[in-house]
Amino acid sequence: METILSFLRHLKQNNNRDWFNDNKQLYEEAKNKFEEFVNILIPKIKEFDKDIDVNSAKECTYRIYRDVRFSKNKEPYKTNFGAYVSKEGRKSKFAGYYIQIEPELSFAGGGVYCPQPAVLKSIRQDIYSDANRFKEIITDTNFKKIFPEIFGDKLKTAPRGFNKDFEDISLLNYKSYVVVKNLLDKDVLSNNFLNNILDVFKTQKPFNDYINGILTK
């Protein structure tokens, strides 16, 4: 993991095409190390989540090249390596397991990030129909220890079509249903990193199961 963090630290300081092209070998080494880790991670996840149907890092990892066409930030490269292990791979609509390595900003977690409107509405409708099932998952002691809150932006008012007086309206206001466990660089470099990430994902699994149960109805 040090190879990955070292490359990304240098990239943060030199986020331009000339430096990247001059250091392409360092990029390839870091990319290969990350893919090796993901290739070890995938079968370990499949041991406890039988719905995962991907087999290689190529199906799960994201490109380092940024799409700057509609962004004020014109830096050409991401300063992280990320992988989304889910049924149907990284472009899936299903809740999955995400790992991101970035100096001082690494994290693990997952769920569904910025889902399509129909998917988001289905999740909200299910919670609206029976919030207790969802609350049992997110208030579980072990779950809250790792994931104290749902991550991401929220609407300021009730989503359209839902009663603003609903007792658990705050659970419907999320734009994504994602949980995150932040990681320090020392966590990433730990000899127990793989097992620790798997513990995070195992704790997350009921959250994913709940969402995916809605999406497969």
Protein described:
This protein has 217 residues and is of the alpha+beta class. The mean pLDDT is 95. Helix content is 45%, strand content 12%. Strand 2 (96-101) and strand 3 (106-112) form a beta hairpin. The longest helix is centred in the N-terminal third of the chain and has 25 residues, at 24-48. The chain has helices at residues 2-13, 17-22, 24-48, 117-129, 131-138, 141-146, 185-188, 193-215, and strands at residues 81-85, 96-101, 106-112, 177-183. 28% of the residues are buried. It has a four-stranded antiparallel sheet. It has one domain (2-66, 75-215): BirA Bifunctional Protein, domain 2 (2-Layer Sandwich).
Give the arrangement of secondary structure elements.
Elements lengths: L1 H12 L3 H6 L1 H25 L32 E5 L10 E6 L4 E7 L4 H13 L1 H8 L2 H6 L30 E7 L1 H4 L4 H23 L2
Antiparallel strand pairs: 1-2, 2-3, 3-4
Helix pairs in contact: 1-3, 3-8, 4-5
Q: SSE order, as H and E?
A: HHHEEEHHHEHH
The biggest sheet, with number of strands, parallel, antiparallel or mixed sense and barrel status, is: 4 strands, antiparallel
Bin the helical content.
40-55%
Radius of gyration, Cα only, in angstroms? 18 Å
The number of helices is: 8
Structural category: alpha+beta
The largest beta-sheet arranges its strands as 1-2-3-4
Oligomeric state of this protein? single chain
The span between the termini is: 40 Å
Basic shape: globular
**Count of distinct structural domains:** 1
Under CATH at level 1, the class stands as Alpha Beta
The low-confidence parts are none
Overall pLDDT level: 95
